[in-house]
Amino acid sequence: MKKMRIFSVALAACMAVGAAAGCSGGGDKGDYAVKVGILAPTSGAVSSYGQAAKNGAELAIKHANESKMFDKEIVSVHMDEKGKAEEAVTAFDRLVNEQKIDVLIGDVTSGPSIDVAKEAASVGIPMMTPTGTAAAITEGKDNVFRACFLDATQGKAMADFASSQNFKKIAIIFNQDDEYSIGLKDAFKAQAQSKGIEIVSEQAYASGDKDFKAQLTTIDGTSPDAIYMPDYYNTVSTICQQKKNYANIKDVPALGADGWDGVLGIEGVDKSVLEGAFFTNHYAMEDQSEQVQNFVKAYREEYGKDPASFAALAYDATNMMLQAVKNAGSTDYDKVVAELKKLEYTGVTGTITFDANGDPIKPISIVEIKDGKYTLNASM
Asked: What are the φ/ψ torsions at residue 226 (nearest 5 degrees)?
């Protein structure tokens, strides 16, 4: 199934023949160039991630309109799926069939993104998740792309970094109910062991747990050099807070993944318990490149806060999608997908190309929490 809107001279020709095949659009013909659907949770447990992604996408659209990227305006429609897969699928259906979007930016977290990607594949609409890291999102789906690296990629990268820091013994504490946490844990563990690192303890907890005494007591008895905590910032901050009560591990560094991004912004967080932690991420605000600093400045001016990686990824994802539409000269699904496959883009989160699965080939940042701030430690 295809949907097309031709630009510039071709647009005028299309309008002249009225309802000619392939010329239908998402609204009154010719009133806009592209309609972007943004699917992101702006309420519920993961609303902070969704709001950041929505902000980043909308900022990219604003900048593209200011630069007159197309002859007519780019418009967007956002729907809140509350971080729930069922609601995400319903919202996707509304975006495609009621709002008549041309392209989709979203979803944000892995679970809903997997289900939405299945629906997108059946329709053929170009879809790019800025931040969904599960491999299943893009596997076997020609029209689905992502701006972020996979769980396996960042798990392996952190293990390589741990090896470079000469950590010999590492413990792992992870969420047994979460695909993101499990995927990271598995990748990290396999790569760490291949590097000769001993995994001295592997402790699981359930979603919603607040007391980690049993897991930390066991880990404390192994005296590890570091502890890998692949989960989101609200959980890892609690684990780090409780870790300080155990003599053998209170000062050992915590290692994490991109879910840590934003941990210093938690209201009332004791930053001292996070000191010396390292986590993989997609960019660091401290990067002095022109792309990064221009984005940080613009985001602060627009929203009055610092941009988390979810915002940076959504900004890049939206820019890449719009550039593919521009290169295609059309919103025809197949043509846009073809342009995405051969796109080379330099943005806030690095220089990006896509592999055969629609996954990005790009660098990974290792961010250190130092003196209560995020610091770029390495790029891998």
From this structure: -160, 165
pLDDT above 80 for 296: yes
Residue 2: band (very low, low, confident or very high) from pLDDT cuts 50, 70, 90: low
Q: Which domain holds residue 213?
A: 152-281
Task: Decide if 378 is inside a domain.
Answer: no
Domain containing residue 55: CATH number: 3.40.50.2300
Identify whether residues 213 and 92 lie together within a single domain.
no
Say yes or no: 321 and 229 in one domain. no
Kindly report, residue by residue over 112-121, the tens digit of the pLDDT. 999 999 999 9
Say how many domains are in the chain.
2
CA angle 117, 351, 338 (to 5 degrees): 45
On whether residue 165 sits in a domain, the answer given is yes
Looking at the domain assignment, is residue 177 inside a domain? yes
* pLDDT tens, position by position, 307-339: 999 999 999 999 999 999 999 999 999 999 999
Q: 217 and 140 share a domain?
A: no
Residues 143, 203 within the same domain:
no
Give me the mean pLDDT over the 49-78 stretch.
Answer: 97
Q: Token digits for 360? A: 């990005």
